[in-house]
Recover the amino acids of this structure.
């Protein structure tokens, strides 16, 4: 019996992790806490008692490293038997989740019609794909139209090759990879094929990259490739040339140069009639309703399955030629959630996800934001963004006026309105469009801005109070130095240092009369608001750059304004918090100095502001998807799974067939909803 080295390594790693956790929790941590609270060091530690806390820290880091390694690489194997088991498990899961298997369960039939293949240039048909595979030297193209059963034949051949590899140590390990994921690891162009193949073998079957590299080099892996038709046409020629040295079997709608082609034969009329008879009496009325036009299209397992599921247990008078459309309508008829389900499926089908994926969790915004209609984007940029900014300015100015006085609040309102123009990359979006709808959206965004503004203001007051216990000289120097560095990021041009020195001199002189503490209090508020405002502007700019030019053009309506008038107006309304106390002009100066950070925080290349802006951009855009994929997305996807439109593989939803995905991507949701209600 061969031992998997990776399994032994993993067992040792898990044992070490458990031992470390036990030592930390049971032994070191209680002793260290006891010593810190005035207790005595246990005698068995001896002179090492003073190193208890460092030892805890080091062992915790080691344990975290082992846990991270286990999560990232713990599933990998370099053992042949383990790899074969994982290939078999996944391929059986793919077969069980296919539309053909689901149809067998629904109809109660034992098997699908037996498919036959024909070698290119020969007149005979064969039902033993394994024999053809051996005869052609273990290299061939399995060609046929969409729905002809190519993928099913490929998976069945893979299971046969798995059994062969178990019985013959010299036989290669078969793996099925889907070329639909070819673009998942690249940007504009496909990545190098070998690197992609090794990643797929690791991701799908847990085969370590080192073992995969050796097995590929020694030809110990038979690569069965599906999904070539999902590769963009611009990359198809490159893809075919890259896969040629590795591929054993390739599924395609057409031949590939320099590879022998095996054609999947269409179903005969006798096979169709035999299948209908096997479901008797549930499809007895179907045979008499088949017209010559239907017979011409009823030549594939997909068409037969869709037709049978659509007209199961029904008296059939007429049958349309759109099998996919009729199937979708029948599956969703009578469902209360048909409308939201159809919109969600259309949205997911247009995401262009690899491997027919229908994700529950939203991917990055660049994948789905261009699919949205103009209205939610218009509401975001023209209503929600200005209203949220106005609400934030109003709340911060109110807190500033209450705690720091009217002068500081007034400086904040003026500076925030002016800096909006400076950092705003969307001058033609922040304008009233001449239409009144969207008031509810604006009101909700304003409330959200007020809440966020109060949080930002409280953070600013906390920052301003940090320097209160500092010595006078330390606070003085800190204000001058901080003003200089804030000015460096604010002043444009190639020589900002002279101007930064002049700006830093302003608080240096003013603190002779006001003292540094009032300036520090204003700087805390200004810095907090400036960082938040800059990140918000950067996030909006990132979202805007994701929008397609056609969508942008439809939103550029009305007269261009430099700034939404509600921002300064509502900001001035927040000044009521400062009525009754004018405050110190030193505090107002501190607010202005703190706001100098706004341009720096709005830049896309300054860490950590760039990372925070990306998080904020994702948070801003997620609500836009609710019109297409609601909060009930799991329930909707589960409904689609029950209706055989989706399946589950490896815990993820995926479309039952590429034909269903393409039909839903191109459908008219309104017309489809009406059809399901008839």
């Amino acid at each position: 019996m061969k031992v998997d080295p990776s399994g032994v390594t993993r067992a040792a790693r898990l044992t070490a992790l458990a031992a470390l956790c036990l030592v930390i929790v049971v032994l070191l941590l209680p002793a260290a806490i006891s010593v810190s609270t005035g207790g005595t060091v246990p005698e068995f530690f001896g002179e090492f008692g003073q190193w208890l806390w460092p030892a805890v820290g080091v062992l915790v880091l080691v344990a975290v490293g082992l846990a991270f390694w286990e999560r990232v690489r713990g599933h990998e194997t370099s053992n042949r038997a383990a790899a074969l088991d994982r290939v078999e498990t996944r391929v059986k899961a793919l077969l069980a989740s296919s539309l053909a298997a689901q149809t067998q369960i629904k109809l109660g039939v034992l098997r699908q019609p037996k498919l036959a293949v024909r070698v290119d240039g020969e007149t005979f048909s064969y039902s033993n794909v394994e024999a053809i595979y051996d005869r052609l030297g273990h290299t061939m193209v399995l060609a046929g139209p969409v729905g002809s059963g190519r993928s099913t034949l490929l998976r069945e051949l893979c299971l046969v090759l798995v059994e062969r590899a178990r019985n013959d140590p010299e036989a290669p390990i078969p793996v099925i990879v889907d070329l639909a994921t070819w673009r998942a690891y690249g940007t504009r162009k496909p990545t190098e094929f070998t690197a992609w193949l090794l990643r797929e073998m690791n991701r799908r079957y847990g085969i370590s990259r080192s073992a995969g590299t050796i097995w590929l080099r020694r030809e110990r892996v038979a690569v069965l490739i599906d999904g070539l038709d999902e590769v963009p046409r611009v990359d198809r020629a490159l893809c075919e040339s890259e896969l040629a040295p590795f591929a054993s079997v390739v599924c395609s709608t057409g031949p590939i140069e320099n590879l022998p082609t095996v054609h999947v034969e269409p179903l005969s009329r006798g096979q169709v009639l035999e299948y209908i008879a096997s479901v008797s009496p549930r499809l007895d009325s179907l045979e008499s309703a088949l017209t010559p036009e239907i017979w011409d299209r009823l030549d594939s397992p997909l068409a037969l399955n869709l037709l049978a599921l659509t007209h199961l247990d029904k008296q059939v008078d007429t049958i349309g030629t759109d099998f996919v459309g009729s199937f979708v309508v029948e599956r969703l008829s009578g469902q209360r959630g048909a409308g939201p389900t159809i919109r969600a499926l259309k949205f997911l089908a247009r995401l262009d996800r690899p491997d027919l994926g229908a994700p529950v969790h939203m991917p990055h915004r660049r994948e789905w934001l261009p699919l949205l209609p103009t209205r939610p984007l218009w509401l975001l940029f023209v209503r929600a963004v200005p209203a949220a900014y106005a609400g934030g300015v109003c709340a911060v100015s109110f807190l500033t006026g209450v705690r720091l006085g009217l002068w500081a609040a007034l400086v904040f309102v003026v500076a925030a309105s002016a800096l909006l123009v400076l950092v705003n990359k969307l001058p033609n979006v922040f304008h009233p469009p001449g239409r009144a709808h969207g008031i509810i959206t604006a009101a909700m965004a304003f409330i959200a801005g007020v809440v966020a503004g109060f949080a930002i203001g409280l953070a600013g007051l906390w920052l301003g109070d940090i320097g209160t216990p500092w010595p006078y000289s330390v606070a003085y120097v800190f204000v001058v130095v901080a003003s200089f560095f804030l000015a460096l990021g604010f002043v444009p041009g190639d020589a900002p240092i002279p101007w930064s020195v002049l700006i830093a001199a302003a608080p240096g002189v003013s603190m002779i009369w006001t003292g540094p503490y009032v300036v520090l209090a204003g700087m805390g508020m200004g810095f907090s608001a400036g960082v938040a405002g800059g990140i918000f502007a950067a996030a909006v700019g990132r979202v805007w750059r994701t929008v397609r030019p056609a969508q942008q053009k439809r939103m550029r309506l009305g007269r261009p304004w430099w700034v939404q008038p509600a921002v300064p107006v509502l900001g001035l309304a927040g000044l009521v918090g400062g009525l009754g106390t004018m405050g110190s002009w030193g505090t107002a100066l501190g607010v202005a100095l703190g706001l100098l950070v706004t341009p720096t925080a709005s830049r896309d290349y300054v860490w950590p502001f760039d990372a925070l802006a990306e998080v904020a951009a994702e948070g801003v855009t997620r609500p836009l998807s609710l019109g297409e994929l609601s909060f009930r997305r799991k329930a909707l996807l589960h409904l689609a799974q029950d209706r055989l439109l989706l399946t589950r593989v490896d815990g993820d939803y995926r479309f039952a067939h590429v034909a269903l995905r393409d039909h839903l991507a191109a459908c008219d949701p309104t017309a489809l909803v009406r059809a399901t209600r008839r």
Confidence is low (pLDDT under 50) at residues 184-188, 425-434, 558-563.
